[in-house]
Amino acid sequence: MRFERCRMLFGEEGFEKLQKAKILILGVGGVGSYALDCLYRSGVKDITILDCDCYDESNRNRQIGSDAVGESKVETLLSLYPGIYGVETRMDMAWVASFDFEPYDVIIDAADTTRVKIEVAKKCYKKLIMAMGSAKRYDTSKIEVASIWKTHGNALARKVRNELKKAKFDRNFTVIFSPEEDRCKEKGSCVAVTGAFGLTACSEAIKRILDQN
Questions:
Q1: What are the E-state strand segments in the chain?
Q2: What is the pTM of this model?
């Protein structure tokens, strides 16, 4: 039975909550694709992924589905994970303003654009799990989960914090980050860390769903 061991772990009531949950993943690259895989294997049925990119050769070190070089990320993952939903669109400020986040129980932000991340946080912070910079690192033991206001040692998290302060936004939301010192100047990456960010996002989403009344 496919989900037998998930049912053992979560219990029937918990597993039913997972099956009914609606989750949105923004960006399905090195972090988002692993979050998708984890949620899908854990029994979540209603998953929507959103991205506009095609796979590049340089993605193959860390992204699920990336052997399909030149192909749409969304279309490729829809074929690998039957039953999920896909939206192929560019995430910009206009998109954030017009998109309806209300139907989703959890939103995992694995997007790259800082301004978009900040606007998403303002609009749906209560439902948000945000992944910060995972490039330039290879030590998974450094990964932490905290409120955005408790983050440290991570350049992207610092930038998001500072911009939110400027906007006089003081609400809490969950962030996955690593204070590991940069190991290179360019955007070198290791799937051990990007994948672990995605798996951690999945774990946080599962905990949140199971805790819901």
A1: 22-26, 46-51, 85-88, 106-109, 128-131, 144-147, 174-177
A2: 0.97
